[in-house]
Amino acid sequence: METKLARIAEIARLKPEERFTSLYHLLNEEMLVLCHDELDGNKATGIDHVTKREYEENLEVNIRNLVSRLKTRSYRPQPVRRTYIPKGDGTDVRPLGIPAYEDKIVQLGVTKILQSIYESDFLDFSYGFRPRRSCHMALRSISQVIEKGSICYVVDADIRGFFNNMGHEWLMKFVDLRLGDPNMQKLIRRFLRAGVIEEGIWEPTYVGAPQGAVLSPLLANVYLHYALDLWFEKVVKKKCDGQAEMVRYADDFVCCFETKHDAERFYAALLLRLEKFGLDIAENKSKILMFGRFAEATMQRLGQGKPDTFDFLGFTHYCGKSRYGYFRVKRKTSRKKFNAKVKAFGQWIRQNRHEDTDQIMKTVAQKLTGHYRYYGVTDNSPSLDAFRYQVTKLMYKWLNRRSQRKSFTYKQFNAFLAKHPLPSPKIYVNIYG
């Protein structure tokens, strides 16, 4: 199977105009068993409440039955189960769609096939949900673009509810440019229109793709590749008087320009471009700001104080200098993300303070390490220290409320931490490495 996908990828790379008309047969037993093996068994279940462990108890029969339904075109995706997760600073929530387990298997198979086609099409400045690419690579790219280029202005734009507003007809038109297999197209349409179930009530889906579904990130990349990336690369950059660059991670993107005129023209054109494809900008979260190696001097000359900052991928980016006095793009954990993480930890420790102490400390260590691995980037040590401090405060507060008597004094709590040490903050990602 991997050989077949590699062959498709090679054809897609060598023939950018090629339409693939026969791919549906690749959703066979070999492919679907491979997808089953790759799926995480600890993820939340859909409306079928079937877990990976339960499904694999009779795996051979289940997969054979699934392939039979795919071949006879009788397979119908089940509606996704809608739930909500905290968004931003934790005061708002975003909808999350969780497919049934069998649908996850098929979606992963479709994702593998489409990925082998589109990976060679996607542009270099796109980093989200792609093999061998990550958030940290996107952060490195921003640093290189601004520090080594002639960038003076940044357009910080936020697409409002992107996953909820992708137009199905536009998406299928984009898919049709490379995928000519009618059976695959029909299967993708069925996933898009399977609907959602919330509190036992089914709702149809005429637009959007469920955020949380296996296939949705790839479809989002396809949508934005044609609606945004190619337009920026083929049209916007050619009409700019100075340098223009973009870095995109899924629906989050930052555009950098050498001149203010180019930045303003792009922002005005962006509103019309996104409107054409059923999208719009959250204007309260979008702005044009002076940013770059000349920004600080220019703003001081104009008496406007320090350059403004922008948020991207959970980090606040600001103008700084290296130890040798050279301009540097620096970053710290954004206030919204920091507050949301502290709030989430507070809720967790409050709900789990009755658990065994060793298990609590083990989980706290895992949570801290996970936080450090993402936010532990160059220049962000103070934010890591602050997060560990807040975690320690919350532990002292809630571990002291496991009974009507206090469990610790400050001295006893410090002795407890000496016996159960928390991981120290660590920089895991060198932006300049």
Silhouette: globular
Helix content: 40-55%
Distance between the termini: 36 Å
Helix/strand-derived category reads alpha+beta
Low-pLDDT parts are none
Most strands sheet: 4 strands, mixed
Radius of gyration: 24 Å
Overall pLDDT: 93
Would you count the extended β strands for me? 11
Helix and strand sequence:
HHHHEEHHEHHHEEHEEHEHEEEHHHH
Please indicate the percent range of residues in DSSP E strands (runs of 2 or more): 5-15%
Spatial order of the strands forming the largest sheet: 2-1-4-5
Number of helices: 16
Short description:
With 433 residues, this protein is α+β, with helices and mostly antiparallel strands.
How is this structure best described in words?
The strands form three sheets. This protein has a four-stranded mixed β-sheet with strand order 2-1-4-5, with no helix packed on it. Strands 6-7-3-8 form a four-stranded antiparallel β-sheet, sandwiched between helices. The protein starts with a helix and ends in a 14-residue tail after the last helix. It has helices spanning 2-14, 29-38, 52-56, 59-71, 101-118, 135-148, 162-165, 168-176, 182-192, 216-239, 260-276, 295-301, 335-352, 357-375, 381-399, 410-419; strands at residues 80-87, 92-98, 153-158, 196-198, 201-203, 244-249, 252-257, 287-290, 310-312, 315-321, 327-333. The protein is globular and about 70 Å long. The chain is of the alpha+beta class. Helix 2 crosses helix 5, helix 8 packs across helix 10 (216-239) and helix 13 (335-352) runs parallel beside helix 15 (381-399). Helices cover 49% and strands 14% of the residues. The longest helix is centred in the middle third of the chain and has 24 residues, at 216-239. GO terms for molecular function: RNA-directed DNA polymerase activity. It comes from Alicyclobacillus mengziensis. This is Group II intron reverse transcriptase/maturase.
